[in-house]
Design goal:
The structure holds 2 protein chains of 2 kinds. By secondary structure, chain A is mostly helical. Chain A contains 10 helices and no strands. Chain A has 2 domains: 2-39; 42-268, Orthogonal Bundle (MetI-like fold), CATH 1.10.3720.10. The longest helix of chain A has 35 residues, at 2-36. Chain B has 2 domains: 16-26 and 96-356, MetI-like fold, CATH 1.10.3720; 35-94. The chains are: A mainly alpha, B mainly alpha.
């Protein structure tokens, strides 16, 4: 009898744990909707920040800045990861593959702030200026491991028979890869890339001293550039109530962007399981 | 027993636990076509221009992709090298004192990082103490109790939770948790347990305990999804044997499944620890940023990641900057070791499984 009761008691405790974990997401979402929702309007999305102390103003420059940085990161990180994975799957030998995978896993575990330091010493110190390039480089490095491992996984899922059929027709290996292997794996690879974009979109730490921040439009890619996460951070730790209000609103926009990408990608693009 | 207990699935790359992939790295499936040997043999006989063109195409494709793969290696090595190179002035100046010394004084250029090490470790320990029981409890629920549909729906939500940017956690930390700790949570802890040194001293709301709580919330999703996966990988026969001996469901879970999955679950905890050590934004926003070592958990502190985030752009002078880079190097080495341990632990479970199957 006592054992029976323990059984029920402990299992109800575990369900409480699960409930607790899940309710955190609802709490976060609800709180941000409640606090941030009312300050989101067209002006907020399309105006520049007002001078410090004046209320009002928007986050247009941060949204555009984030877009620029994410674009640079994607154009830098995704091709490296994608092509690297092609080599691992199609050509690489065991030892080289092990080394590359090990490096990618290591890179994935490096704290984002440390990657920021790397981008700083490599780009900001050399060019002597904060820029969208440096921020994009830092985030791009964070994308490489994800792009590499997801591409690799989906390339390996391509059935062997498909390749063999193409080889049997006399196609050279590169042609088989380009016309058969990649199209079959494309859906999965795209899913991986979109999820890693969503992940770096919210990264703040590596941008603090690479793209820095800017209260105005940045012209070109060689200037300090505002970004949504850094702006949220600056506004949240700042002393003005109006800034706090805007931090909530900007936070809601960032959160919705990240969550919606995740939901859409996971539900609708989810590749069939092998 | 719930359906699908015997099911083993590889985590997909978009799940939090993909990065400790249950397959060991060196175990790869051969996709290299043996046919290519046959293909490359004839050209020496035919040696017409189109076969040469084909081989050129292959050579170019191979070269380009090789460069990309190589660049991953190069970037990783360059990262470690730049960190080391950047910290050389500081290493030369302070040596081991950098780790043991308490003062952090940019004016007199005397730098020691022990307060930051302490802050990083203590917040991570608090986070683990809070997150591990909840995380494992939830994982047991998802793997053992919940019907399949509910389990996968909840797992989906937990994956989403893992995707929430850390600055959002920081935002809620500053404006929700800090006032709560100041007015209710901290006060009631003090009233109940104030005689303990760890709950002594003034309670400002910001501090080590608050940072630990925020971290705990952030790492719970990782512990849940990996532990769940590991528990689901326990073979059905193990449970059935235990149930047949008359053990209750809970006894089976605790004495059989958990024991079987032990090292994998420890792996998930180490992985969560590595995340907690390197987490920057949320901690910076709630820890109070004061370099001190205090027995009280209410006292403000400072972590390694936080000091880099706060002082890097204002660091004047090479030695100051170099000291901050050295903290980054320490952080890099710490997370590298812990990540490696996590992988080893998780692989050892998988090996066992391979032997049993």
């Amino acid at each position: 009898m006592r054992r029976r009761i323990t059984n029920y008691f402990i299992f109800s405790l575990t369900s409480l744990c699960a409930l607790l974990a899940v309710s955190v997401l609802l709490f976060i979402l609800g709180y941000l909707l409640w606090h941030g929702g009312r300050s989101i309007n067209w002006a907020f999305l399309t105006q520049l920040p007002k001078p410090v102390g004046e209320s009002g103003g928007g986050i247009a420059n941060a949204i555009v800045g984030s877009g620029k940085i994410i674009l640079i990161a994607t154009l830098f990180g995704v091709p490296l990861g994608f092509l690297g994975a092609l080599y691992l799957v199609e050509y690489g030998g065991t030892r080289f593959n092990f080394a590359v995978r090990y490096a990618a896993d290591l890179l994935n575990g490096v704290p984002s702030i440390v990657i920021g330091i790397f981008a700083y010493t490599l780009i900001v110190l050399r060019t002597k200026q904060f820029s969208a390039w440096a921020g994009g480089f830092a985030l791009g490095i964070m994308m490489i491991p994800t792009a590499l491992r997801s591409t690799e996984e989906f390339l390996r899922l391509v059935p062997r028979e498909l390749r063999e059929a193409a080889y049997a027709l006399g196609a050279p290996q590169w042609k088989v890869i380009v016309t058969v292997v990649i199209p079959v794996a494309m859906r999965g690879i795209l899913t991986g890339i979109m999820l890693s974009v969503a992940r770096i979109a919210g990264e703040t730490a590596p941008l603090l001293f690479t793209s820095f921040g800017n209260r105005f439009w940045s012209h070109g890619l060689n200037e300090p550039t505002a970004s949504l996460p850094v702006m949220i951070f600056t506004y949240a730790v700042g002393p003005y109530d109006d800034w706090h209000q805007q931090a909530w609103a900007a936070g809601l926009i960032l959160l919705l962007g990240v969550l919606l990408t995740n939901i859409v990608v996971r539900l609708f693009f989810r590749p069939r399981t092998a | 027993m719930p359906a699908g207990l015997g099911a083993r699935f590889q985590p997909r790359f978009f799940e939090a636990n993909y990065w400790i992939s249950l397959t060991p790295m060196n175990e790869q499936i051969a996709t290299q076509p043996p046919e290519i040997v046959a293909l490359s043999a004839p050209p020496s006989l035919l040696s017409s221009s189109w076969t040469r063109r084909i081989r050129m195409g292959d050579l170019v494709a191979r070269g380009i992709t090789f460069l990309a793969a190589l660049s991953v290696l190069v970037i990783t090595v360059a990262l470690a090298w730049e960190l080391y190179k950047g910290s050389v002035p500081s290493i030369k100046e302070f040596g081991w004192k950098f780790i043991t010394q308490k003062t952090w004084d940019p004016v007199f250029l005397s730098f020691g990082s022990i307060t930051f090490l302490f802050g990083t470790l203590i917040t991570s320990v608090i986070a683990l103490l809070l997150a591990v029981p909840v995380g494992i409890g939830a994982a047991i629920f998802l793997a053992e109790l919940a019907p399949r549909a509910i389990s996968s729906a909840l797992t989906f939500v937990i994956e989403l939770l893992a995707a929430v940017p850390s600055v959002i956690y920081g935002l809620l930390g500053i404006f929700v948790l800090v006032p709560f700790m100041r007015e209710h949570g901290g006060a009631s802890l003090k009233a109940a347990l104030g005689f303990l040194p760890i709950f002594s001293g003034p309670n400002y709301g910001v501090g080590v305990l608050t940072a630990g709580i925020v971290l705990a919330v952030m790492i719970v999703p990782f512990i849940i999804s990996i532990s769940r996966e590991v528990l689901l990988a326990v073979p059905r026969e193990q449970r059935e044997a235990s149930m047949a001996l008359g053990a209750t469901h809970w006894e089976t879970t605790w004495h059989v499944a958990m024991v079987y999955a032990r090292s994998g679950i420890f792996g998930s905890i180490f992985l969560a620890l590595a995340r907690a050590l390197g987490e920057t934004m949320a901690v910076t926003m709630v820890i109070g940023n004061t370099p001190q070592i205090s027995a009280s958990l209410f006292a403000p502190g400072y972590t390694m990641a936080a000091v880099i985030a706060n002082e890097f752009t204002e660091a004047t002078g090479d030695l100051y900057l170099s000291a901050l880079v050295e903290i980054g190097l320490l952080l890099f080495v710490m997370t590298m070791i812990i990540n490696a341990l996590a992988r080893l632990l998780i692989w050892s479970t998988v090996r066992k499984q391979g032997a049993a199957a």
